[in-house]
Amino acid sequence: MKKYYLAIDIGASSGRHIVGWRENGKINTKEIYRFQNEIQMTDGHLGWDAEGIFQEVKNGIRAVFTEFQEIESLAVDTWGVDYVLLKNNEEIWPAYAYRDCRTEEAVKEVHGKIPFSELYHRTGCQFQPFNSIYQLYDDLENGRLKDAADFLMMPEYLSWKLCGVKAKEFTNATTTGMVNADTHEFDKEIINTLGLPERLFPRLSRPGTVLGKLLPEIVQEAGGNTQVTFCATHDTGSAVEGIPMEGNCPYISSGTWSLLGVKTPEPITNIESEKANYSNEGGVGYNRYQKNIMGLWVVNRLKQELCPDLAFEEIVKLAEKSQNRVTANVNTSDFLAPYSMKEAFDKAANHALKTIGDYFSCAYRSLAASYRQSLEELERNTGMNYERLYIVGGGAKNQFLNRLTQEAVGKEVIALPIEATALGNLKIQMEVIK
Predict the structure, then answer these.
(1) Which residues are bridge partners to 84 per DSSP?
(2) What are phi and psi of 294, to 5 degrees?
(3) Which residues contact 428 (CB under 8 A, 6 or more apart)?
(4) Cα angle 267-273-278, degrees, rounded to a multiple of 5
(5) pLDDT band at 394 (very low <50, low <70, confident <90, very high)
(6) Closest Cα partner for 61 from 74, 78, 77, 48?
(7) Three-state SS at 153
C-alpha cells in the first residue's frame, strides 16, 4: 500500500505543495498547489505577508486532502534568516524581509561588541548584513524584544501555526550566525555579550523531529489530519538531501540565490574561509560548506523592468544572440535591492549594454563568473579538486547558463531540473514516518 507525504516548499518568489510516495525504489512526486510569494513594502520597510503565506499553506493542504485521503506527514521548508517575533501566542509585526536595509547600524554595533573574526571562528557563518544576529540586535535596540517570548524562523512559525508546537530546527538556526560550530547549539556567549534575551534561544531540534498532529481548527479547514514534522527546514539543507549525487561533489542550488558548496564532515572556520566569506551550515549528519552568492534574482528583476511580457525562452534566445562579453560583480551591495536593476548593470558595465539581449547576456555571464570564483575558493580552502559540479533548482533548466557555467568552471556540469528541495524534504519525512 502506497504511503503519501507532503512537502511544503516555500521560496522567496513562490510556494509549492508537492505530494511524494515511494514506488519501485524511487520517490515519485506530484505538484498539487502553487502560489506566488513576494516581499512587500510597508511603512518604508521590506517585509513578508506571513499571514497571507499561512493562508496559502492552508489552501494547499486543503487541495491535497481533496485528492489524497490520507497523508502520513507534512514538513515545511523556506529560505533562512527571517523570522516572526511572538509575545506569548500573538505575533509582533512586521515580519521583516532580509532585503530590508534596517541592519546597517546594527552590523557596526554587533561588530563593536564582537569582532566578526571572533564571530566567524565561533560559528563559521558567512557575513551577510541580513543575518538573523543583526536583525535581532536591531530589534533589541528598537524595543521589539522587550515583550518577545519567542522568535520562530519562517518554517518554524508556519509549523507552529499548523500544530501548535514551538520548536527550533538546527539547519535553519545555522543561518542566524549564532550557532556554535563545535556544540551545534546556540552560542550563549554571543547571546549574552549582545544582551539578547536567553529565553529566545532553546535547544535545537534536528531534521526528522515529529512535532504533532494538525490543530483541530486546521483539520476542520483542511479536511484531513496528519503529522507535522521537521525536514531540513532551510531549503538548501533539504535540496542537498534531494540531489542524486555520485560521491561527494560540489553543488549549486540555483534559485533566487545561488548556494554553492560541498558536504564536509565538520565546519571549516579557518582564516581562508573567513576571507572568502564561506559559510558552514547544518546538514543531515554533515556540514554544508557553502557560499551564498547572487542568483536568478538579477535576471528576474531585469525581466520585470525591461520586458515583463517576454517569456524566459525568448529572453534566453536574445541573450545567446548578443555579442556582449562584459561581466559585472553581481555580489556587490549594488545588486542586493536596487531601485532599478537596469541602472545597477549600467553602472557596473560602464553603459556598454545596449539591447535587451545585452543585459541578460551580462547577467548570465556574470553569474557564471561568480560560480567560477567561488568554486576556485572552495577547492583551495578544502584542499580538494573536483571533476563534477551538480546544479539543481530553477537555474538547472537554463541550458544557456549551464553551458556558460561549464565553460567558466572547466568541469563537467550535471544539471538536474528537479524539485531537489521537495525531494529532500520528502526523503527526510519518509525515513521517520514509515
Answers:
(1) 152
(2) -60, 145
(3) 75, 207, 208, 229, 231, 232, 238, 241, 284
(4) 75
(5) confident
(6) 74
(7) strand
Q: Which H/E stretch holds residue 226?
A: none
pLDDT in tens, 253-290: 998 889 999 999 999 999 999 999 999 999 999 999 99
Q: Considering the domain delimited by 5-235+422-432, tell me its CATH architecture.
A: 2-Layer Sandwich (3.30)
Measured from the Cβ of residue 308, the count of other Cβ atoms closer than 10 Å reads 7
C-alpha cell at 330: 553581481
Task: Let me know: does 184 contact 204? Beta carbons within 8 Å.
Answer: yes
Q: Do domains 5-235+422-432 and 245-417 have the same CATH topology?
A: yes
Residues 6+ apart with CB under 8 A from 12: 37, 38, 39, 79, 255, 256
Grid cell listed for 428: 527526510
CA distances from 147 to 91, 106, 333 (A): 11, 20, 33
Domain ranges of the chain: 5-235+422-432, 245-417
Identify whether 202 is preceded by a cis peptide bond (ω within 30 of 0): no
Residue type, 76: V
pLDDT for residue 133: 98
As a whole number, mean pLDDT of residues 138-160 equals 97
- Residues annotated as catalytic (active site), given as ranges: 235
CATH superfamily of 245-417: ATPase, nucleotide binding domain (3.30.420.40)
**CA distance between the termini of the chain:** 12
Q: Which residue has the cell 535553519?
A: 172
pLDDT in tens, 56-77: 999 999 999 999 999 999 999 9
Q: Is 329 left (phi over 0), alpha (psi -120 to 50) or beta?
A: beta
Cell numbers describing residue 342: 537596469
Alpha-carbon Rg for the chain in angstroms: 21
The three cell numbers locating residue 158: 508556519
pLDDT at 12 over 90: no
Amino acid at 78: T
Grid cell, residue 137, equals 540586535
What cell was used for 114?
A: 564582537
Q: Where do we find the cell 556544540?
A: 183
For residue 418, the tally of other CB atoms under 10 A from its CB is 17
Cell 534536528 belongs to residue? 206
Question: What integer pLDDT is reported at residue 429 of this predicted model?
Answer: 98
